[in-house]
Design a protein that fits this description.
single chain; about 140 residues; alpha+beta; 2 helices; 4 strands; about 25% helix; about 40% strand
Length: about 140
């Protein structure tokens, strides 16, 4: 995996009001910046991309907000192609977007769940839920 590391720069959570009926949770990651940089390796410098991101969860209507900002170090042979696409229209090629967004969800989703639990808010991402099965009805002969 070419994602070398992830750093958090900002973590905030705010409860604005008590829970309300029919709350909606809007959660999503966003890539905010991409810059070319160099990482010092053992014998040489390695060309990498520094990818800024934001993960935000809004619990509506006006109940709470959780925001996580940070950056990732991304090693790829297609850095120039990714930078060109980003500079042109602030979009990534699909292969890079899928990999980066999935990594953001994986790392910040867990942190978002912990924060929502601490703040006594509903989970910001869906969790699997087991339900008891209804007993099978016997057929009459």
């Amino acid at each position: 995996m070419p994602i070398i590391g992830l750093n958090y720069k900002k973590i905030s959570a705010e409860r604005k009001s008590a829970a309300k009926p029919n709350m909606k949770i809007n959660t999503g990651p966003e890539i905010t910046s991409i810059n070319k940089s160099k990482l010092q390796g053992l014998d040489n410098e390695i060309d990498v991309l520094t990818v800024g991101f934001k993960f935000k969860s809004d619990i509506e209507p006006q109940v709470a907000a959780i925001e996580i900002e940070g950056s990732m170090v991304y090693k790829t042979d297609k850095a120039d192609e990714i930078l060109k696409s980003w500079d042109k229209n602030k979009k990534l090629p699909p292969y890079a977007q899928i990999e980066l967004i999935n990594h953001i969800f994986k790392k910040t989703g867990i942190l978002g769940l912990q924060i929502s639990d601490i703040m006594q808010l509903p989970p910001v991402i869906s969790m699997p839920k087991l339900e008891a099965a209804e007993p099978a009805k016997k057929k009459k002969k």
